[in-house]
Write a structure and sequence with these properties.
By secondary structure, the chain is α/β, with parallel strands linked by helices. It has helices spanning about 1-10, 25, 30-45, 60-70, 130-140, 160-165, 190-195; strands spanning about 15, 20, 55, 75-80, 90-100, 105-110, 120-125, 145-155, 170-180, 185-190. Strands 4-3-7-8-9-10 form a 6-stranded mixed β-sheet, sandwiched between helices. Strands 1-2 form a two-stranded antiparallel sheet. Helix 3 (about 30-45) packs across helix 4. The longest helix is centred in the first third of the chain and has 14 residues, at about 30-45. Bound molecules: guanosine-5'-monophosphate (5GP).
Length: about 200
């Protein structure tokens, strides 16, 4: 997705440990027009699938999840990283290890919002080792619902998340695929193919 790749190239910064900072348009300040375009692109890519719910994880998945859900005219659920005070024990949970924060969170979704006949599109901002997406898939499947696909805004293709998810049988669509963050430079997968 060209608009997204341009934003990454012009506004993203590469931190230590091959982490990309996109706080100015995705992770802290949000570019609403880009978020809407991202939602539309996800819907276009998954147009052959039946989707009845969008599921993401707080907080950075909420903007792209919401715009996809709006375009699909279905509800968005965001998994919580910490159980909220108003949540009772009727929840689905999965443990998710966060690579960037080096901590494990118990992600939680209320049983009230996922039904066995739901077809769920999972959305997240980044794909690295696939932990967050696998946790969301686990929560979905605990309810008996089907994972319709996994939509990722930025995939770090040099990590093994994409492989893990496809090997587990999920369809993954990533809007920007990063081949490398070496030398503080962002190289996308397509560019790498051309120069090789
Ligand atoms: P995974 O669970 O696939 O290992 O990592 C995905 C999660 O970690 C995302 O939800 C995202 O919050 C965070 N993450 C992983 N890599 C990056 C990165 O390079 N930049 C940012 N901003 N977040 C990342």
């Amino acid at each position: 997705m060209e608009q997204l790749k341009q934003a990454i190239q012009t506004k993203g910064t590469v931190l230590a440990n091959e982490v990309l900072k996109v706080d100015s348009f995705l992770n802290h300040q949000i570019d609403p027009k880009l978020a809407v375009a991202i939602g539309k692109e996800f819907v276009e890519r998954f147009k052959s699938e039946t989707i009845t719910k969008v599921l993401t994880i707080e907080s950075s998945g909420i903007a792209p999840g919401l715009t996809a859900a709006l375009e699909l005219d279905v509800s968005l659920i965001f998994a919580r990283k910490k159980k909220s005070l108003t949540m009772n024990d009727d929840v689905y949970t999965a443990s998710v290890y966060s690579y960037t924060k080096n901590e494990t969170n118990e992600v939680t979704v209320s049983k009230a919002f996922l039904e066995g006949d739901d077809h769920v599109l999972i959305i997240d901002d980044f794909l690295a080792n696939g932990e967050a997406a696998l946790g969301l898939a686990k929560v979905t499947e605990q309810s008996g619902a089907t994972v319709a696909g996994i939509g990722i805004v930025i995939e770090k293709s040099f990590q093994n998340g994409h492989k893990k998810l496809t090997e587990a049988g999920y369809r993954v669509e990533s809007l920007a695929r990063i081949q490398s963050l070496k030398d503080e430079k962002v190289t996308f997968v397509e560019e790498a193919k051309v120069t090789n």
